[in-house]
Amino acid sequence: QVQLVESGGGSVQAGASLRLSCVGSGRTFSNDYMGWFRQAPGKEREFVAVINWNRGTTLYADSVKGRFTIVRDPAKNTVYLQMNSLKVEDTAVYYCAVRSVAAGPSSSVRNSGFYGYWGQGAQVTVSS
Q1: Burial of 66 (0-12, 13-18, 19+ CB in 10 A)
Q2: What pLDDT shows up at residue 102?
Q3: Do the Cβ atoms of 103 and 114 come closer than 8 Å?
Q4: 19 exposed, middle or buried (CB, 10 Å; 0-12, 13-18, 19+)?
Q5: Angle, CA 118 vertex, CA 114 and CA 119 arms, to 5°
Q6: Nearest Cα to 86, choosing from 7, 16, 11, 9?
Q7: What is the DSSP letter of 26?
Q8: Per-residue pLDDT for 106 more than 90?
């Protein structure tokens, strides 16, 4: 059974940095995308970033491009989200998720509905 466990959330001031970690277990992820999504209070879950585990290629939401970086460490079965220059509007619960590359077209990597496994979430709070 696939399990994803996030860590690294917290409360920071605007302009600070945080790094989220997501450790996966239960299978190898070589044929998967691993993504980060977030959900703010009263809002729908939204795409943040995704990485193709095998190729290392990445994609970001426009709102975080240039500030957030997603990387993976295959030796640790871990994906990281480095978040720099945090803004108040980045406040949300952040979730990592995994889906098979074969689950849908590559154009669907931003769609949370294609992801079959989710972590429990990590709270990130940014204050002004």
Answers
A1: exposed
A2: 83
A3: yes
A4: middle
A5: 160
A6: 16
A7: S
A8: no
